[in-house]
Amino acid sequence: MTTMSSAEPTRRDFLYIATASVAGIGAAATLVPLITQMNPDASTIAAGAPIEVDLAPIADGQVIKVFWRGKPIYVNHRTKKQIEEAQNVDVAKLPDPQPDSARVKSGHDQWQVLIAICTHLGCIPIAHQGAYDGYFCPCHGSVYDTSGRIRQGPAPLNLALPPYEFLSDTKIRIG
Fold this sequence. Notes:
The chain has helices spanning 11-36, 42-48, 80-87; strands at residues 51-54, 63-68, 71-77, 111-115, 126-129, 134-136, 143-144, 150-152, 164-168, 171-174.
């Protein structure tokens, strides 16, 4: 008669461990794709991601257009004359009163960053047009100055400002 000691593993113990291991691996292999498919795809992540804009190649008086979250953004390197004109406006006479200093970052008056969507019906204004050398919306005739403030036309509000910050004197991050 042979006696078995309970301290030694049996063939049945091995089968239990092997079966549990295969079941655990199978469960993980099933759950990983299910959880991964809930994450947003790369295009969605890129659409909401902040963008960095190099300001060094932008000449005085030049306006460039970049896109952030599918919206056109104007980055305007204003001349000294444009800055003086924007600062010397009687704010009380504007339809949407806002001083130029509230529309630029302190110490960076030469850089104007705007969301280039007309506040009337969502058209895209043209830069360096209109009576104030700012922005002109050809759809319905709204005229904005170089600070993006509404001066004439049906638009009720100034051009919106995106969230942005200066990373250095020659680089900004929008978003």
